[in-house]
Each structure stands twice: as structure tokens, then as C-alpha cells.
Amino acid sequence: MWLQSLEMISATDGWALVWNANPDGNAALEPTRTSDGGRTWIAVTPAAALPLLDNGTALLYAASAERAWIAVSHGDGNSTVVFGTADGGESWTESNSVTGYQPVAMDFAGPEHGWLLESQGAEMGHDPVQVYRTADGGATWSLLAAGLPAECDKSGMAFSSAGTGWITSDCVLGYQVLVSPDAGAQWAPARLPLASSACRDGCTAFQPQFAGGATIVEVGSYPAPAVLLVSTDAGESWQREAMPAGAGPYPRVTFFGSADGIAVSAAAQGSIGPDFYLTSDGGLSWTAVPQGRQFANSGASFDFISPLLGFAWISAGQQLYQTSDSGRTWTVIVARLG
């Protein structure tokens, strides 16, 4: 099997999108799940999605070992369908089609309420998008917001439990973060303590995280160290925290509460540094963790489910790696499609 994306729920349970053959050839994506820590993966593709997955454009969102959704683009490039399961992929529901070139991000607040960010076609640093919403677990989607600023390639979308929504972007000049105070109906530029001049050569704002009541937005701009913007009042005020220089301009930061987090060091073109970084005070200070395996320029991706337990895989690769000590040591897992 060849992994494209991975979302582990626990040390044993997880979901992944995998290629059913070498992606350099004639291959299609399949949603799969594991219950043995990634050693064996079972294909759980809904029958109605089979002809759509051949085009290789799909987005996975996993909420639990039983509940997950996949958004799949039609081959015509004009619409997207969402499939949802509540029983680990034994059965799926198929949604109505929504207009769009491809799904950018999907987020759910509980089993019923969710949002889909759909691109209308990105080109030359412009990415017009629309926001769709579901209130029945993904069975039906309705257009919620259109006409959002098209500048910059959209990089992510997330909603807090209170219904505040955020859309982040990757910009060639300056930066763009949009915020919605009303569950996605209206959007406006967020007031962040970061001047556009700090992103003279462009900035990447990563999908926000919500940890212990805090909203955390990471912004990176090569070659300077990344910064964390932290708000405890839904974006009314912000605290700016600098990342360690060794973490690189684009570290992959994951928080597991208001205090504990891990940063996978990363520079330009996805290169991975020799140290990861741990925090136990919400990002005010970081401790370097030397890595037991040097991923370097291998195009590796990471999924940590705690500051200690994490998984890594090489893009379109067949090997999976697991750590239980923040990366000090890694164990090779030969992943097999059952």
C-alpha cells in the first residue's frame, strides 16, 4: 500500500487514504482503517465512490474509530460529494453534490454539524472559495458563504466549539486570515498582531487549533522562525510567541491542550530538521528533542496523537514509523492492505 494521508485516533485505531497501486502508474485512492496500530489496513471504500476516486482528488476527516467522512471530487471538476460513516466504514451515506473544483478543508463539531471549504479553481495566487454547511451529519450540504476574498491559496479551515470559524491561506505577498463570528455565514479579515511588512515575501498561515479554550494560529515566512499567535478570547486579543530558530520557518505544531504541544521542525520544501521541540507551557518555552531517525528531505509527514506518541510516513511510501518517546526512537511498521 502507498499512503497519501493518515489520521490516527489512538495507538491502535486510525484512518488513511491510500493508493491501491503505485501512484506513478494507474492508481486510485481508497479510504482504509486500522485497529492494530497501522500494521493492517482494511479498505472500506463506499461502492458509489469507486468511480470518483479514480481521479485521485479526495479529502479525509476522521472524528473517531467509527465515524469519518470523505469528500470526493467528480471527474468533471465541477462538483464534490461527501460520504459519511458512523460504523467504521461498514456502511456509508452519500450526500448531494456541491458546486466546486475540489475540497480544501472539512471540519465537524459533533456528529451532525459540519463545514466544507470548496475551491472554485485556484490559479496564479488566487483561490475563490465557498463555504458549505451540513446539519444532518453530512447527508445534505447547503451553500453558506460565497464571495470570500480570492487572494492567496487557502490552506485550511476550522471552527471552535463556540462556532467561531477561521480560514487560513498561503500568500505570495503579505498574509490573509479570515474569521467568522457566526458559524461561517459572514467572514472578514482577522485582526492579528502581525504587520503585512513582516510577510514581505509571503506568509503561510496554518490551520488554527483550539486547545484548552485558546485559539492558536501558526504563521511562517522563510527564512525567519515561525511565530505562534495565541488568543484566549476568541480573537479579541492576541499574544505573539516566537518559535525556536531550530524549528524552522514552517514547523508542524500540534497542541493537545492549553499547555502541552510538539513541533516537528521543518524548513522550505518540506525538509525536516534533526530536532523536534516540546512545550508544556503553551508555547512560551520549548525543549529540543534529538530525533532517532533523520527524515531530512524525504518528504515525510507526521501525525502525533500525544506529545509522546506519533506516526510518520513518507509521501506515497509503503513504510510507516511509530514513536512513543517524541521521536527519540522510531520503530518501522510494514503497513499492509488487508
In a few lines, what is going on in this structure?
The protein is an all-beta fold and 338 residues long.
How would you describe what is shown here?
The protein is mostly beta strands. It has one domain (2-257): 7 Propeller (Methylamine Dehydrogenase, Chain H). It is built from one helix and 31 strands. The strands form seven sheets. The chain has a five-stranded mixed beta sheet, with no helix packed on it. Strands 5, 6, 7, 8 and 9 form a five-stranded antiparallel beta sheet that branches. Strands 18, 19, 20, 21 and 22 form a five-stranded antiparallel beta sheet that branches. The chain is globular and about 50 Å long. The mean pLDDT is 92.
Which key phrases capture this entry?
338 residues; 31 strands; mainly beta; five-stranded mixed sheet; 46% strand; five-stranded antiparallel sheet; 1 helix; Methylamine Dehydrogenase, Chain H
Mean pLDDT across the residues is 92
What CATH calls the topology is Methylamine Dehydrogenase, Chain H
Secondary structure class reads mainly beta
Strand arrangement across the biggest beta sheet: 1-2-3-4-31
The CATH homologous superfamily corresponds to: YVTN repeat-like/Quinoprotein amine dehydrogenase
Could you name the CATH class?
Answer: Mainly Beta
Oligomeric composition of the shown chains: single chain
Distance between the termini: 10 Å
* Beta content: over 45%
The total beta strand count reads: 31
Helix content: under 10%
Q: What about the largest sheet?
A: 5 strands, mixed
Model regions low in confidence, pLDDT < 50 over at least 5 residues: none
Task: Specify the number of helices.
Answer: 1
Shape: globular
CATH architecture: 7 Propeller
Radius of gyration: 19 Å
Count of distinct structural domains = 1
